[in-house]
Amino acid sequence: MLTHLDSQGHANMVDVTDKAVTSREAVAQARVRMRPQTLKMIAEGGHPKGDVFAVARIAGIQAAKKTADLIPLCHPLMLTSIKVELQPSGDDSVLILARCKLAGQTGVEMEALTAASVAALTIYDMCKAVDRGMVIETVRLLEKQGGKGGHFKADAP
């Protein structure tokens, strides 16, 4: 049984020593809602701080690599692929999709969720001077494949 509690009830990292190495992949999303003029400025590359999408993409990738440093009891993983996609949406928002992959003994859900979250926070940080009313929402796991838990695909919102 996998648990974060030891025999005395203390929190600890799950022991995955005996788990098989398998291909694992997770996709997470986040959405940042903003004023239409803010989205237009970002999409057209007119932000005075530079390319918001490029900076958010790099921040998300770096965050996925540092997940074990941010989330207690999370295993440090050797990720083989991290992709962060950002796209303007017709509802005055930016949709962020983060995909993480590895061949390992534990999943990559937390890495994908961390990447999407940090990319969203980076957009907020870069744009807060022009739009403090932005809302970060819908941070969630969309899909997970591999490992003992098998395949998970979230229902449409």
Automatic annotation (TrEMBL):
Active-site residues (renumbered): D125
Catalysed reactions, semicolon-separated: (8S)-3',8-cyclo-7,8-dihydroguanosine 5'-triphosphate = cyclic pyranopterin phosphate + diphosphate
Positions with a binding annotation for substrate: L73, C74, H75, M110, E111
Assembly information from the UniProt record: Homohexamer; trimer of dimers.
EC assignment: 4.6.1.17
Keywords: Lyase, Molybdenum cofactor biosynthesis
Pfam families: MoaC
Family: Belongs to the MoaC family.
Function: Catalyzes the conversion of (8S)-3',8-cyclo-7,8-dihydroguanosine 5'-triphosphate to cyclic pyranopterin monophosphate (cPMP).
Any one GO molecular-function label of the UniProt entry: cyclic pyranopterin monophosphate synthase activity
Name of this protein: Cyclic pyranopterin monophosphate synthase
Pathway: Cofactor biosynthesis; molybdopterin biosynthesis
Domain Molybdopterin cofactor biosynthesis C (MoaC): 13-147
Superkingdom field: Bacteria
Species of the source: Pseudomonas typographi
UniProt xrefs under NCBIfam families: moaC, PRK09364.1
Name of the gene: moaC
Enzyme class, first EC level, given as a word: lyase
